[in-house]
Amino acid sequence: MNLVVLEHVDGAPTEVSMQALTLAQGLGGATHALLIGPGAREAAATVPVAVAHVAEHEALDAFAPDAWAAIVCEVSDRIGATAVVAPGTEHATDALARAAARLGEPLAANCVAVTPGNPLALTRVRWGGSLLEEALLHAGQALLTVAPHTVFAASPGSPGATEPFTPELSDADLVVTVRDRVAPAAAGVSLPDAKVVITGGRGVGSAEGFGPVEELASLLGGAVGCSRAVTMAGWRPHTDQVGQTGSKIAPELYIACGVSGATQHIAGCKGAKRILAVNTDPEAPIMSVADYAVIGDLHEVLPAISAELRRTAS
Amino acid sequence: MLTVLSALALLLVAGLAGGLFARRALLLTRIVRLGKPTPRLGELPRRVRNEAVDVLGQRKLLRRLIPGLAHAFVFWGFVVLFPTIVMALIGAVDRESTIPWLGHQGWFAFLVDLFVVLVLIGVATAFWIRKVQRPERFRGSHLGEADLILALITLIVTTLVLWHAARIAVGLNEWPAGWSPVANAIAQVFGEGTWAEARERILVWAHLLIVLGFLVYLPYSKHLHIATAAINVFFGRTRARGRLEPLDFTVEDEAAMRFGAGTVADLTWKQMIDTMSCTECGRCQDVCPAYATGKELSPKLLIMGLRDQLFAEGPKLVGDAGFQPSALVPNAVSDDVVWDCVTCGACVHECPVAIEHVDHIVDLRRQLVMVDSRFPSEAGQMLRDVERSANPWGKPQVERADWTEGLEVWVLQPDEPAPELLYWVGCAASFDERARATARATTKLLQAAGVDFAILGPRESCTGDPARRMGDEYTYQAYAQQNVATLNDAAVTKIVASCPHCFNTIANEYPDFGGRYEVVHHTELLAELVRDGRLQPAAGEEEITYHDSCYLARHNDVLAAPRELVSRIGKPLEMARSGKRTFCCGAGGSHMWMEERGSAINEERAREAAGTGATTLAVACPFCTMMLDDGMKQVGETMRVADVATLLAEALDARAPSGATSG
Lengths: 314, 663
Hints:
- The structure holds two protein chains of two kinds.
- Chain A contains eight helices and 16 strands.
- By secondary structure, chain A is of the alpha/beta class.
- Chain A folds into two domains: 2-174, Rossmann fold, CATH 3.40.50.620; 196-313, Rossmann fold (3-Layer(aba) Sandwich).
- In chain A, the strands form three sheets. Chain A has a nine-stranded mixed β-sheet with strand order 9-8-7-10-6-1-4-5-11, sandwiched between helices.
- By secondary structure, chain B is mainly alpha-helical.
- Chain B folds into three domains: 64-220; 254-262 and 277-375, Orthogonal Bundle (Fumarate Reductase Iron-sulfur Protein, Chain B, domain 2), CATH 1.10.1060; 390-663, no CATH class.
- Helix content of chain B is 54%, strand content 4%.
- Chain B is built from 27 helices and eight strands.
- In chain B, strand 7, helix 26 and strand 8 form a beta-alpha-beta unit.
- In chain B, helix 2 (44-56) packs antiparallel against helix 8 (225-234).
- Chain A binds chain B through residues 127-128, 130-131, 202, 229, 231-233, 238, 244-246, 248, 261-264, 266-267, 285, 288, and chain B through 370, 373, 378-382, 384-385, 387, 392-395, 428, 431-434, 474, 592-596, 600, 626, 630, 633-634.
């Protein structure tokens, strides 16, 4: 008997969950599904398994990893599951790791293939995808997560029974739960998504000196970036840093102001379609990658561009 | 009758003390025997020499004169006075007997007197240093333990000289009393009296009991080093201090495969003895650039943390094969400590007892990176770039030789005959604008001197060094094998490298993968060309200070050649921290690709260089160039930072303004 934990969005199981289901079905034997939280019942009705268990509880509106772990243990115990499979998402992995700890069993994360048998023979993704590990899983109960998009979801068959139930949850199960969701503090566009990025380097001179950079960014609907020198000087947070050790970005237009263009910086912005450099030094290395350049002081050039933009807009 | 009783009493006390000592010594030995293998037996003559120079000669301790002499007095005193323990053991049983021959020598009695005084001077100095001077290097050390040990040493030598005095007072001295000026003078004060005989008995027993107490306390204290330090020095690294021990990924038995150090069970036996040899003197901490700039890392606390965990879990490991030791990180040391290290090796160079801190750090990193996948996230990009693009900035390989534009450099093709000399450019000089200046200058100089050389161009890859120093041994070995294959196929025999990191890797680490070449740094080759008159730079008046790269000076002893060049083209000025005691630029240990916590190492070094008053800072490493050039801008200094090769090329142009060197 296999139990597969399915995540769902808008009343339908997610693609990666269906991939996990396909892998679970490859283990042989009957497969049951477990879906948790609001919308689980609608999603369960579409899943081609013998029985889809639906955990419903008022405390499950928000994700709570320990509660999920408790439910996984409860259902797997009830149906006598020999294997529990979940998609290798952050939530499901979190829940399964906790379930593994409760059961005293090992968890094999990021599997891409499984050969049935005792012990199970697994292939797992390691080292950020650069290595495939062949492993044998010695366990009383096999707990697996499936690396997303490594298995082709193909689960023929028609949906079976849906069995809703109310899980038994203690207060301890609900200690960790999602209370609030906060968008990244930066108003406007985030650095990696921005179509236009205006970056200030050491040439900006101070934290206050970023005024003209921010002004131009807001006029163009772009994001503000900075070089490592700026972060080192404490003028801007590391989250704004573009470069090898910051964000690697690929905007439509990259405007580098007062940035000399160290290799470590260029490594982060070379994906840009067009690069405009504003710098007083025509010999600065940034010039070798720039498509356009303005040789001049950014504190004069940027306000002039902003003024022109305002004039044409009005 | 009294003799028999004394003998029984001695047997009891000495047996008890010896037994307790042996019990502890046996346990420690059994722990060390569980250590993982590491080859430390080759080059016997050099090991004997290290033992003579570093242990008997106290070389590293004497680098700091006052504390060094204080320690040397106590250490030499311990060696010279050792026979007096046997004399006291014999004398306690039979006051009429002593060691044959030696016990009757006047000169030995004189040496005993002399070293008692020297030891007392040493101990007094040590107390003065600890109580009055209170140097920063002791922060985090067990100060109370040190006080107790110093007090015990004082008691041992004091009771020794008093015992000798008491013997002279009752005429029991087997040696001419005149040879013992100190003991003799005290004997005059003692005088003869009714309890003079008893005094001699009390003193010999007091002396012995303190010595035996010390023996028992010794293996439980940091003073254990008197038993382990000489062993650790003997098995210390001999040559190639920049070389890391490779991991063996071909082991058949997977359980025996070692991915660095995750728990105390993964430590090599040398690493275990390292931790048992530390006396917490803090010389390492004093020279550590990470510690100096407010990072969490202190090499001393690193070793102490590992020792504490080894002593807590080692005995359980010995007793129970099934015992599961806990993770070293973050229990013994925190993650930050592991990542703060720049692998500059200043700590290793300074350590008087041959502790190899960098090897510990790299082994901890190997476990974190290869098993736990836990490392500073910003470095992940570099690891991916090295793996996918064969350079740490993710630049296209096809652009590797772009810097040669207009220089007519021979790019070696697969079937061409081997060049006399291969120029290994390195990723930095191939791709970074500032470092390219070095490659161009070196090329012009070699061409001007008529040297026949080639580069590999797009067939040159990252040496794997940045990945290796991060702990990603797997990626490193893949590149090591690939590069060695390329070099061997091309039948290369002699290599010149611009980058000290490439230089170190190819010269010291590629032999482990079958790559054996004559490798020189470009400053060595250029100095040779200048010496031979093949390059004739103009002498200049500019004041130049030279910054030693850690991987060149400290790890590979390249000190003279760059200085030779600097003094030919300008007026050299030395920084306080130079040569093998240089201070890192902050880029080592893959820190070029990590963000820095605390204040910046490069700024500290830039300030020091600017403080010499020189106008130019000469360097010989592309990473030092970048870090220190940035550092100058960060601290608002205008000092020029340039590679020695760049400066030399300018000096050559100054002599031949017609452009004879523009080749």
